[in-house]
Write a structure and sequence with these properties.
transcription; DNA-binding; DNA binding; Rossmann fold; globular; RpiR family transcriptional regulator; 2 domains; Arc Repressor Mutant, subunit A; 311 residues; alpha/beta; SIS_dom_sf
Length: 311
Amino acid sequence: MTAIAKTFSVLDRIRTYQSQMPATMAKIAAVLIDDPKAPLNLSITDLAVRAGTSAASVTRFCRMIGYGGYSQLRVGIAEDVGRGGAKAAWIGEIGRSFGPDDSPDEIRNALLNTHVLSLQTTAGLLDMPTAIRVAGAIVKARQLDVYGVGGSALTALETEARLYRIGVNVHTWAEVHNGLTSAAILDDRCVAIGISNTGRTDETIQMLTVAKASGAHTVAITGNPDSPLARLAHDVLIAASPDGYLQPADLSARHCQLFVVDLLYLLIAQSNFDRTTRFLAASGAAVAPRRRPMRGGALPSTAARRATAQT
C-alpha cells in the first residue's frame, strides 16, 4: 500500500477505538470528533472540562489511541492540520485505505479486508437480547415506521422490501414532512426505527422524536452508541463501520446496516414460520411468470422438443 493508505490521522484512531471506549473516554472522543483542532487551543485541563471528565482520563484516552500523552496527541493533530492539497482531497472523497497509486489487486484486497472487518465488528458489538426484543416488538406491531435520510434511506427501503414480503406492515420515510406526519399518528402498538450511521442526522432524529412522543417503541440503528439518536431510542443496535473504509460515510455503513436488518428479518421470519413460508410462497408465485426460465433447468429437454416437433 502507498504512504497515503498507511497514514492514520488522529480522527482515524479515535473512530477505530470509539466503540470500545468507556463512557468517560467516549465523551472526549465526541468533543474531538466535533472539533478536531480543539487540543491545539486547549490545555489538557481545559479539554477535560469541556468533555466533562478529568485530565487523567484525557491521558488514558491518548494512550488508548496510540499516543504517549497529551503533547504527542497535539503533535499528531498539528501534523494532520498541516496535510492538505491533493492528498487531503483524495482522503476526503475516497478514504485512507485506498491509495491513488495502488494496484488493482491491492485495492481489491483492501476493500475485502475493510468489508470483513466492518461486518465482524458489527457482529461482535450486536447485543442479541436487544435484537431479539426488537424483532419481537415488530412481530406484534400494528405498524412499523422506518426513517432514514441519504444513504440510510436506501437501507430503510431494503428493510421495507424484506419485511413487507413476510407480512409486516412497514412504511419507509426519507422525506421529513411525510415522516413526521406518519410518526404523529403512531401509538403504543407501533414500532419506529431510525437509521443513521453518525446518529446525528437532524431529520431522522426529528421523526423518531415524534414517534416516541406518540407512544411508539423506538429503535436506533447507528454506528455511534453515544449519539443523540441512540440516546433518544428505547433500543439501540450498533452497525459499526471502522474508519478507513470508502467515503462518504454512507458507503462505509451500508453493509453493516444491512447486516443488522437481515438479522432482524430472520428473527422475525422464525417467529411465525407458517405465515412466513405462506407469504414467501405467494409472493414468489406472483412474480415467477415474469422471470425467464433458467438455462437448461426449466426449459424442455432436446429430446422432448424433438418429440413435440415430430407430432
